[in-house]
Amino acid sequence: MIIATGTASGKSLAYLVPAVTEIFSGGTVLYLTPTKALAADQLRTVRGLRLAQVRPATFDGDTPAEERQWVRQHANYVLTNPDMLHRSILPRHASWSSFWRRLRLVVVDECHGYRGVFGSHVAQILRRLRRVSAKYGSRPVFLLASATASDPALAGMRLTGLEMAEVTTDASPRGSTTFALWEPPLTDLRGEGGAPVRRTATAEAADLLSDLVIEDVRTLAFVRSRRAAETVALTARRNLEEMEAVDGIALPLAADLTASTHDQGFADPAGRRAEGFEEPSLAAGEELEEPALPYGPGLAFPAIAGDGGGSHRETQPSRTGREHGGGLPGGAPVGRLADRVAAYRAGYLADDRRVLEKALRSGALVGLATTNALELGVDVSGLDAVLIAGWPGTRASLWQQAGRAGRAGQDALAVLIARDDPLDTYLVHHPEALFGRPVEAIVLDPDNPYVLAPHLCAAAAEIPITDDDLEIFGPAALDALDDLVARGLLRRRTTGWFWTSRDRAADLADIRGSGGSPIQVVESGTGRLLGTVDESSAHTTVHTGAVYLHQGETFVVEELELDAGVALVSAAEPDYSTFARDVTDIRVMESLRSQAFGPGELHFGSVEVTRQVVSYLKRRHQTGEMLGEEPLDLPPRTLRTRAVWWTLPSAVLTPLVSDPDGKPIDLGGAAHAAEHASIGLLPLFATCDRWDIGGVSTELHPDTGLLTVFVYDGHEGGAGFAERGYAKAADWLSATREAISSCECERGCPSCIQSPKCGNGNEPLDKAGALRLLGVLLGS
Ligand SMILES: [Zn+2]
Ligand SMILES: [Zn+2]
Questions:
Q1: Are 674 and 774 in contact (CB under 8 A)?
Q2: Ranges 202-206, 253-257, 675-679: which has the least confidence
Q3: Exposed end of the chain (fewer CB within 10 Å): N or C?
């Protein structure tokens, strides 16, 4: 069974009731989440039920050795994660025998998190789990909980290999939320190839936050980085200070305010920044220490201290002409408006968080700009509005963030502010893609041979694999087993396939990575290990000079040392972000599926991609302006993966280039533009990031002999994204065409056909040509 409904719709109750029921009749329950933090949360919930028969326990990397024995023998509600299942519980199944024998229910919570390569690994781990439980005579029910998604039963089936029933109706009570989709205007600034630059989502967020604070609307603004959170808070504070500085003059209407900010303020961003940095608490050098914010939790909020600076407030009529009295709702003392806005980021201590939560609840603080860190650490309720700067990647995250608004069933406001990106452009012009039936599916590919093979080894080490097991592991299993025997990893005997090595088979599968030894990201001054990056994505994310984000904090890569497997970084606050650019070649190995598509053909199959990162671009945060391109010297990488591609025959192209009435199109530029935009839109249908996929377009590809546009999975062996593109091609390519035509720019910009990672410097591109080309392909 899979339950796929929104945030706070009661999913936990839906699995807790059957779980507890099974325990009452002597069974055991296994609960899986992607993170330890969630398991700890759930443990509190289960304990909170105060049921003597239920003996819950977490089993993860933090569980002390002396407790593990107790958990194995006595716990009947075990909370763990796929990593622990893979590395410890399944390989040592014999020591869990009494748990397996009574296993009735497996709860897979937040299962929308199991996607791409990681999801494919989890799918194989769950198949191993089914085989091990069967050995002990149990056949547990799988109960999956997911955010809303397209085809949840299908996703659940791919994850578990079992038929699924789905529950998608959400009848939970809630207030209504007004949802605004907000597209920032094009500015006079020029980017690559003279393209117009759209005003940034963070600049718009700062203005909206100011407007809402004036209206006393308790607002949370979600942005991507700590730096952006600080910029939004600072800009909002400055906007509010400027208004208050005009003593005795009535506050302008909010609409005028917005206009004046656009006209004067951001025409001269440097001037405004200088003004902002006069804030005494942002003195040089201090910003890297905690708390670094103008009014971070470590400093008292003037509003909380009640410094008596509230006289302005009392004389200012608001937009609606309402007079605010002496106090704020909730009885909080009145402070200067600017002091009621702050930024929040990861890394604050628990005490600081409590101060912040309290200030927000009491109304002393009205506006807070934050990174997603807040989703993890702070308990904020009682908000009226949420601003979301840029599409957060999935509908699940969008609803989670928007769900913060709405106190005690009251109505709320949520605003999604578009970034200059084709997907964001499409969404703000097509609300039905957000509010109608979800089009985004949880995508994974359990048959990926690079994923399947190491799990077959792990499974054979657990219990030798027999012919009967082939069905569990899917159609690709037999070939993979033959290959493993040929490589000497498994032995074939009459009774099945055996793991005979003394090594741990589970070590072969790196379930959070995607092959290759990962690159370690190390802070050069302190030697602190910040994290690891897959070898496959290191060239694009931690090349020398790259701006690297870690939990909302910003670092610059001093050097990527490929031989040593290390990227040395240092903390910095550059006013730009970086985008790696690569040049790509693609070879068709095999077309696995194909179909006629309009006058052309659509294929899905195996390809070999050779990619080389050649340079990176710097783009200014505040304005989106291009600051230049720096060359890089990195070796090419070869990737065997899956791709979806379409071709058009020259018979339908000839009229496009020789049209005597219309403007002839540049075929190469048209295909290139269509490729860029389609990469941008695929994440809407397959829950992936545009950085998980890549593309190649050419007027004449040697393997097809035709005009061809490829979109491929950026992971070894494929991750299911291209396959989803093949399955949803008509919708996906129509949305691509829509995104291009929705953008009001004349000849192409980053919101439609320019790509930040284009290795050809976004040349050539033909916007009108792309629309006609896609029109022909889609038969319109
Ligand atoms: Zn455009
Ligand atoms: Zn390109």
A1: yes
A2: 253-257
A3: C
Across 575-597, average pLDDT? 92
Tokens for 693? 């996929």
Q: Please report the sign of the dihedral spanned by the C-alpha atoms of residue 603, residue 606, residue 608, residue 609.
A: positive
- Nearest CA-CA partner of 140 in 19, 33, 52: 19
Each residue's pLDDT tens digit, 31-51 = 999 888 788 888 988 999 999
Count of positions (residues) in the chain: 780
What span, in angstroms and rounded, lies between the C-alpha atoms of 616 and 560? 14
Please give the pLDDT value at position 38: 81
Ligand 1 mean position, distance from CA 665 (Å): 18
Residue 648, token pair as written in the block: 């058009």
pLDDT at 315 over 80: no
Confidence class for position 95, pLDDT limits 50, 70, 90 = very high
Report the relative pairing of strands 553-561 and 566-571 from DSSP bridges.
antiparallel
Query: Are the CB atoms for 314 and 328 separated by under 8 Å?
Result: no
Separation between Cα atoms, residue 496 and residue 261, nearest integer Å: 73
Gap from CA of 544 to ligand 2 centroid (Å) = 22
- How far, in Å, is the centroid of ligand 1 from the Cα of 700? 26
pLDDT confidence of residue 595 = 97
Contacts of 624 (CB under 8 A, 6+ apart): 189, 191, 197, 198, 199, 200, 420, 750
The answer to whether residues 643 and 592 touch, using CB atoms and an 8 Å cutoff, is: no
Beta carbons within 10 angstroms of residue 568's beta carbon: 20
Residue 242 has pLDDT above 50, yes or no: yes
- Tell how far the Cα of 383 is from the centroid of ligand 1, in angstroms: 35
Q: Residue 444: which of 118, 149, 150 has the closest Cα?
A: 118
CA distance 442 to 724: 10
- Residue in the block written with tokens 């299908």: 154
Residue (of 489, 182, 202) closest to 371 by Cα position: 202
Would you state the pLDDT for residue 771? 96
What is the separation, in whole angstroms, between the first and last Cα of the chain? 41
Ligand nearest to the CA of 675: 2
| Whole-angstrom distance, CA of residue 699 vs CA of residue 680 | 21
Distance in angstroms (rounded) separating the CA atoms of residues 671 and 549: 33
Instruction: Say how many Å lie between the CA of residue 310 and the centre of ligand 1.
Output: 45
DSSP H or E stretch at residue 765: none
Q: What is the pTM of this model?
A: 0.76
Distance 762 CA to ligand 2 centre (A): 5
SS3 93: helix
Amino acid at 448: N
Ligand 2 ion: residues within 5 Å (CB): 758, 760
Q: Specify burial of residue 172 (Cβ count, 10 A radius: 0-12, 13-18, 19+).
A: exposed
Q: How far is the CA of 258 from the centre of ligand 2 (A)?
A: 36
Q: Using the mean position of ligand 1's atoms as its centre, give its distance from the Cα of residue 208 in Å.
A: 23
**Both tokens assigned to 231:** 């910029």
CB contact set of 523 (below 8 Å; sequence gap of 6+): 530, 555, 568, 569, 570, 571
Per-residue pLDDT band for 348 (boundaries 50, 70, 90) equals: low
Q: Shortest CA distance to 425 belongs to which of 775, 201, 183?
A: 183
Three-state DSSP class for residue 51: coil
Q: Which helix (H) or strand (E) element contains residue 586?
A: strand 576-597
Of the candidates 490, 460, 430, which has an alpha carbon nearest to the alpha carbon of residue 181? Answer: 430
Protein residues with C-beta less than 5 angstroms from the ion ligand 1: 743, 745, 749, 751-752
Number of neighbours of residue 378 by Cβ within 10 angstroms: 19
Q: Is 90 exceeded by the pLDDT of residue 436?
A: no
pLDDT of 330 strictly over 60: no
In 3D space, the residue among 725, 709, 724, 726 whose CA is nearest the CA of residue 673 turns out to be 709
More confident residue, 750 or 672: 672
Ligand with an atom nearest the CA of residue 747:
1
